[in-house]
Amino acid sequence: MPRSKRRSTTEMSSNEDDRYASKRLRNSSSRRVSRVEEAQSFSQKRCLAWFREYTTPDDPDTLGPEGMEKFCEDIGVEPENVVMLVLAFKMQARQMGFFTKEEWLRGLGEMQCDSIQKLQYRLDYLRCLLNDQNVFKAIYRYAYDFARDKDQRSMDMETAKAMLQLLLGKHWALYTQFSQFLDQSKYKVINKDQWCNILEFSRTIYNDLSNYDVDGAWPVMLDEFVEWLKASRAKAAIS
């Protein structure tokens, strides 16, 4: 009997140890799951605290050029990278080089990003938006009002060329020639109608200009570009 009793006590002790170990494992696992869920869930408070890292006490609700530089450095993206334009589009930011608190929370809230790591994870998603023709068209049109001087109705030529290079430089075979045309032209600004038609021209007109209709409703700027390009090619052929 005593020996049997000792075995029973040992078995009970072993069972208690097993139950305690199992409980500890469950609690530890639960804590890990909670931490993962917390890391994955979006927190507006955390997002706003992140925003404040780039603002100044004098203007806590606006992220300006200096803050923008640090923000770009933190997420590992050059300020001139097209992905920054896509991000501004998601925020519907009104002015280039600035994000307001409302714009920041709107854009990053939609993407559920409240930290550097989460936004870095979403950069490929932002780049992929450029592959959708309809979304690209919306971003292209947005870029005009975003980049132009708000005191002017048209975009100055220097800014227009920089934005065209960013958006069309790698995708439009005639971009280099069009840029050269602008350099020698009389145009000092680009209006919104011209801006929008440049995209349509780049998408629909063949590189050899064979489908260009001289009686089409293109802006005079593009008619002049076609004339200039044909003359340049004729001259090159003679040479």
Largest sheet: 2 strands, antiparallel
CATH level 1 class label of the largest domain: Mainly Alpha
Low-confidence parts, pLDDT < 50 over ≥5 residues? 1-10, 28-38
Number of domains: 2
User: How many strand units?
Assistant: 4
The largest sheet has its strands arranged as 1-2
Known CATH architecture of the largest domain: Orthogonal Bundle
| Percentage of residues in helical conformation | 55-70%
Per the principal axes of the C-alpha atoms, what is the gross shape?
elongated
Strand content: under 5%
As for the CATH topology of the largest domain, it is Recoverin, domain 1
What structural category do the secondary elements indicate?
mainly alpha
What series of H and E elements makes up the topology? HHEHHEHHHEHHEHH
* Integer-rounded radius of gyration: 29 Å
Rounded average pLDDT: 89
Can you tell me the CATH superfamily of the largest domain? Cullin, PONY binding domain
The end-to-end span amounts to 116 Å
- How many alpha or pi helices? 11
Function: Neddylation of cullins play an essential role in the regulation of SCF-type complexes activity.
GO molecular function: cullin family protein binding; ubiquitin conjugating enzyme binding; ubiquitin-like protein binding
Protein name: Defective in cullin neddylation protein
Keywords: Nucleus
What secondary-structure arrangement, pairings included, does this model have?
Blueprint: H1 2-40, H2 44-52, E1 62-63, H3 65-75, H4 82-91, E2 99-100, H5 101-110, H6 116-128, H7 133-147, E3 155-156, H8 157-168, H9 175-184, E4 189-190, H10 192-204, H11 220-238
Antiparallel strand pairs: 1-2, 3-4
Helix pairs in contact: 2-5, 4-5, 7-8, 7-10
Organism: Tribolium castaneum (Red flour beetle)
Function: Neddylation of cullins play an essential role in the regulation of SCF-type complexes activity.
Region (Disordered): 1-32
